[in-house]
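Batch 3, record 17
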Amino acid sequence: MAGVELRNLRKSFGKVEVLKGLDLKVEDGEFVALVGPSGCGKSTLLRILAGLEEETAGDVLIGGEVVNDLSPRERNIAMVFQSYALYPHMTVAENMGFNLKISSKPKAEIKARVQETAEILDLVHLLDRKPSQLSGGQRQRVAMGRALVRNPDVFLFDEPLSNLDAKLRVQMREEIKRLHHKVRTTKIYVTHDQIEAMTLADRVVILDRGIIQQVGTPTELYRNPANAFVAGFIGSPAMNFLPGMLQSDSDTARIELEDGSVLTAPRKPNHPRDGKVLLGLRPEHIMLGEGTGTSNALTGRIDLIEPTGAQNHLRIKLGGQSTTVVDNNLTEVELGQNVAVHVDPDKIHIFEAGNTA
Amino acid sequence: MTKLVRLLPRISMQAFLMVSVCITIFPFVWVAMMGTHSRSEIYSSPPPFYFGTRLLENYEKLLEVMPFWTVLGNSLLVSVLGTIVTVLFCSMCAFGFFAYEFRGKNIVFGVMVASMMVPPVLTLIPFFLTVKFLGILDTHFALWFPTSANAMGIFLIRQYMVTSVSRDLLDAAKVDGASDLRIYWSVVLPLIKPVLATLAIIVFIALWNNFLTPLIVISSPEKYVLTLALRSLQSVANTPWGAVMLGTFMSMIPLLLAFLFFSKQMMAGLTAGAVKG
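Prediction for the assembled complex:
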């Protein structure tokens, strides 16, 4: 097992700079998810880690050693691909044992290790089948088995669940998590699905346009997003952003929205300077009703009601903006109805006006 | 009546196919029949359209006028060696164009594809001069080796690879620790078997039927291949046409066997990519 470190890692394709100086340290045995929108450079980063792509500048360290000039084989990493990339002409056992065969391991050892891995992943009864005879979930497990059988220092996952249907994705997510508890190897997991990243990873790295926006535990990212991009990216439904003017003193931040309504929140050191700002309100933090004396009260008209069963998603016009509100109490409301809502001052986020996810 | 109208397109198509098949196989049947007749029977009017009784006589005559089995061996040697080496070289070259990025790749590939448009007859004299310069005139090597990395084969295989070999597979093999040669041999080659079979049969037929190259390269009768040897019989006085036809028919047998052996995979190769799998 080994930790992974990136030092000022850069990658350009021609004149386009895809990764703009990344610094990151992944501890030994840690599960880190790289998450970001399409084209943010997360797959490129993974390919550089794997040795399939060459970095333009900077260093990649695995187990404390610079591996820039090492081939994928020499890095002792294993990778699970989005398309599974199973060899179609080989059986499951041959797919899993291919690396060991290349390494000239004795046949008996190959057989034993494939069998052992197959037992962990419940693949024993499929060992003689070809990939075309397997379901999506089974193929995914074989792809993981192929990586696992090698006993690598680092596991790399490139959106491994994106080809599966929703139900199977949840099931496989659980399996990956269980696997990580069994085999505590360093894992770097690329996905564009923030739920996947949040549920699986010890820490999540948010990438946007080749820059790391924030690194933290799922809870940190949710509670204290570093900027509007992270705030908008983490959480489902996504955070609401309302433009406003900030006026603050040493204790209180006072934000006036476009329609003149005013919200107050405790002043925090990471708040931007007074002036134009973006107010961030998570849909689940906006409550229907007047609230208590300390909460911020607003009123708005209901434009849309989306029942999801366990909760209702309401679109309410607040502060001049259409805003999503999650109502866990399934309150009886009607389209066009004016309702009062309130927000706990501690749950208000204030960001510099600019980029959102 | 309506049933007949409904079946008419099908019947017409089948009739058309049957006529086409008859036209295609007529020369084979004709040659087989003529191989069992004497020269005078062949020249009789109307010519005999049935199997005769002179098969053994013709066979004896054939062995008398040419060393048939030696010549057949020469043809087999040239065709089999040429086919194996061509399939190997073309697939290696195609793998290079498919799997690697290098400066000028598209230009080299474009020039190579453009070279397919040059009529082969136009290259005969330069080919002769090159072979002479290399000192391989009058050798079988000159018949199969110079065309073993041909543009058509490389193009055919490379296009097949593009549609049927995922780049993720190459990456997965690299991560598994496979060398370039290993990736080519253990991952890519098994996936392109149909197109290899297609190219093999095309090259085998081309080398077997090749007349022009042996004509300008080979001068020693003991090194003749079938096409050259059978053609040389026409200069014999009172050409024994029965024997020539028998020899011609016998020379077709290896081709038929090769086609029977490869036809299934060849069809798969020719139709691959036509329908998304």
